[in-house]
Amino acid sequence: MPSCMPFNVTVPTELPKLYTTVEVVCAVVSFFGNSLVLIAFVRFRRVRSVTNYYVISLAVADLLVAIVGIPSALATSVGHFAYPRRDYQAELAWVAGEIPTCMVYQGTS
After folding, report:
1. Could you read off the pLDDT tens digit of each residue along the chain, which spans 109 residues?
2. pTM above 0.70?
C-alpha cells in the first residue's frame, strides 16, 4: 500500500501591480466623484429634478461598486493570475467572488 504524501500547495497572495493600481485608482475616483454628486444633490435644492433622481440612482450604484464591488474583485483575484491552467475549483471561486460585483452592477439597470 502506498504511503500518503503531504499535499503542499502554495497559493500566491500577490496581485499584478498594474491591475491593482488601476482598480484602486478607479475605486478612489469613483468614490470621491459620486460622493460629490450626492453632496450636491442634498445641498442644492435647485438640482433636485426628476431627471437628476436617475443620476442619483446611478451615483449610488457606482458608489456601491467602489465600496463593495472593486474590493471584492481584488480579493477574489488573489491567486487567480498565478494559475496558467484553469481548473473547476479556481473558476468556481472566481465566479463566487464576482457574484456580489455583478449584483451591484445589475442595480443600475
Report:
1. 556 656 555 656 677 788 788 888 989 999 999 999 999 999 999 988 888 899 999 999 889 888 888 888 787 777 655 555 555 566 666 666 666 665 655 555 4
2. no
Nearest to 31 by CA among 23, 21, 41, 42: 23
Domain boundaries, the chain: 17-106
Residue that the C-alpha cell 455583478 belongs to = 102
Residue 34: exposure state from Cβ atoms within 10 A (0-12, 13-18, ≥19): buried
> In whole angstroms, what is the distance from residue 40 CA to residue 64 CA?
18
Distance CA 7, CA 97 (A): 25
Q: Which three cell numbers stand for residue 62?
A: 457606482
